[in-house]
Amino acid sequence: MMIACHECDMLYRLESVPEGSKAICSRCGALLYSHKKNSLDRTLSLIIAGLILFFLSNMFPLIEMKNQGLMMKTTLSQGVKALYNQDMQGLAALVLITCILAPFFQLSGLFYVLLPLKYQRVAPKTPHIFRLIRKLQPWSMMEVFMLGILVSIIKLAKMGTIIPGLSLYSFAALIIILAWATASLDPHIIWDKISAGDNPGVKHD
Amino acid sequence: MTKNFLSASHASLLSCPVCHLLSKPGQHIVEKGKEYCPRCGERLYIRKPESLSRTWALVLAAIIFYIPANVLPIMKVTSMGNAESDTILSGVIYFIQTGMWPIALVIFIASVFVPILKLLILIFLLITVQTRSKWRPRDRTRLYRMIEAIGRWSMVDIFVVTLMVALVKLGALADIEAAQGAVFFAAVVVVTMFAAMSFDPRLIWDVLEKPQDP
Ligand SMILES: [Zn+2]
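That is the input. Now the predicted structure with zinc ion docked in place:
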């Protein structure tokens, strides 16, 4: 397989890279290819766990605060709504995209792409969807949002008693699951399987 | 081609920026004179289009936004009739004064240091590419890789504002509103992310490969 380094354009002929090892560009040090172990099954099960945690994280309050007998709580989408109501539509859209839409599209899109691939099938529009998933990667910022939650809790501590909401725990678990899923995803294997699906003889829906 | 190095562009191969498939002319999907990756459908270019001028424009825009982002308040806090405005820096100072050094450091690095570092490194990379510098290409590529990875963390203050605004709604008792500075700050983060994406690190290496002009 020929591959060009995407950071310095050097050409390589990659002989088979053993499972669990990486190929690094000898000229610039960029990661050329990382052959992950058991990538498809592992990523798929992490994605399923991630989807469940994603719904839990968006259903219940993230933080609750008690102040002189008053209870206040917020979910992630209420945060987006609050910004929108304060005439901060741009900010609301940015938070909506980076913390809800992009992560959800990534999770559900990967599920749509990976599940049929596991059974040697290629779902319709798979190349386009997987390409979009890869391009959206930088705009999915759940781990940064998690840091935002921690900073907010510390900032709000002077205004009342903070009670971590139910969603906070599922959110924290989701961050770990997402990081793990990203680490176990092997895009080269996925692309190879997608192009293999184009060959006659392989079942294609 | 006396050296061992052969680049994809020398071999007239196009490398897909998304799926990394290498394709020869004739293998690309051509539509209206534009070339697309035969595997994933992404638009193919030898180098990112107008990389230098686009990156410069975005860097300059980010520098302009950086000033109001730091001068204007990012949120207004009203409690018991007292109104106070928070800027990015006053948030850092608040944590220093209350002795919470680790969190002050986190906010300072994410909101102040990272955007400046990112812009300075991009300017440095742009200038060295334009002057056809051959200085330490490997280290310059490493710098590029670093700024691409760290930029997203600057968004943390925007998320803090979102949560505070949503949570503190006690009417006359206490209320928090997002302010204009947050919009400019978000613009800085988004525009610098686009700037990093539009810069093509392969330009750093091109000058080393073409010592003689054709
Ligand atoms: Zn390289």
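Residues 36-204 of chain A form one domain.
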